[in-house]
Each structure stands twice: as C-alpha cells, then as structure tokens.
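## retry 2 of 3
previous attempt timed out at serialization; input unchanged, resubmitting
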Amino acid sequence: YDDYVLDAKWHPVHPACFAVADANGNLDLWDLNTDFEKQVWRMEPTESEVAKADRDRHPTAYNKLAWSPDGKRLVGGTAEGHVRMFTVAKDVYTSKPDGTARFHDRIATLHEEYKQQHRAG
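## retry succeeded, writing output
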C-alpha cells in the first residue's frame, strides 16, 4: 500500500477473504486462495470525490469497515459520517467446498517456506 491501512476485516464466512480500506480512499477485497500478492477487487475514489477532498481538505477514505453476518454486504464509513454499502459478488461471499482446507494448506506452505528461509540465513 502507498499509504496507511485504516481498517481491515476478515470475511465472516469465506476463510480466505478480507476487506481493506486505505488512506488513499481505496477499498480492496482480497482472496488469499486466489492470490497473495494482488487484491481481487478494488474500488477507487471517483474524480469528484478526490476533487472535493482536495477542496475541503478532508479525506474521502473509509476508515471503518463492517461485513453483514452473511457476508453478502460490506459497509464502509468515513470520518465525515458518510456511509456506503456494497453488495459483494456471490463468488466472493461463497467459499468453495474445499476453500477452508485450501486456505489452511496455503498458510502451512507459507509457514514452511518462512522457516526454511530463516534457517538458511
């Protein structure tokens, strides 16, 4: 990230998915079963939101995130009191049958790689 991460929340149903809000106004969804290096979805602030933030000297960034209990919706709130609700794509809020096992396998593999790197160095 180019700026501060203001909030991050794990998805309540999908074990490998989480949302991140950064100080640049971006809202990202990550699915670690898909990619460790790049988010699967990004919402950037619109040009008018950026222009208003520059004019008012107020950030447009979401600094608070919350998932609905079923994981179908994500809510972002700003320090100015603006709230926006997003409907999440079905493939994001529905973990595949092997999703949990796959996520645990990926984490175990990363852990082993980390241990090997630190033993060698």
